[in-house]
Amino acid sequence: MLTTDQKETILRGAGVATPAFPGVLWRQQRQRNAAPGSRTNPQAGMDPGTAAKQWADAINTLFVAYSAARAAQSLRKAEEARQLGVLRQLQCQGRADPETRNAAASGARKARRPRRTSHAMG
Q: How far is residue 72's CA from residue 78's CA, in Å, rounded to a whole number?
């Protein structure tokens, strides 16, 4: 099972915008001397454990959505490949049938022709 940090790394690598970890926000708040409850830090004044849990829940929700989208994309590609395979198979059968019919008809014509008899010269 993946940790929340690993999930965040995967999401960032895929280009999904992820929320910043609350510890980063708290450091930014101290550096800017922002008041608790300011707009720069939505988790300001919140218990660190609660903020971390909300962050983990947000990452897990994003990861579930990302995983579902990847699975759906994979299923679409597999179905497309299956349909293309069926179409190619039908196309190949369509090309082989006239050749098979021509060969069979040719064989039938040859069988109906009377054999030439050789005339002995004498």
A: 10
62-76 pLDDT, tens per residue?
A: 999 999 999 999 999
Tokens of 111: 């069988």
Encode 71-88: b = buried (16+ Cβ within 10 Å), e = exposed: eeeeeeeeeeeeeeeeee
**For the CA atoms of the chain, what is the radius of gyration?**
36
Share of the chain above pLDDT 90, in %: 45
Take residue 60 and report the two structure tokens written for it. 């897990």
Closest by Cα among 20, 58, 54, 32 to 46: 54
What ranges do the domains of the chain cover?
Answer: 7-96
* C-alpha pair distances (Å), 106 with each of 67, 93, 94: 58, 20, 19
Residue 47's pLDDT is what?
A: 77
For residue 79, is pLDDT > 60? yes
Q: pTM here?
A: 0.57
Distance CA 54, CA 57 (A): 5
Q: Helix or strand or coil: residue 46? A: coil
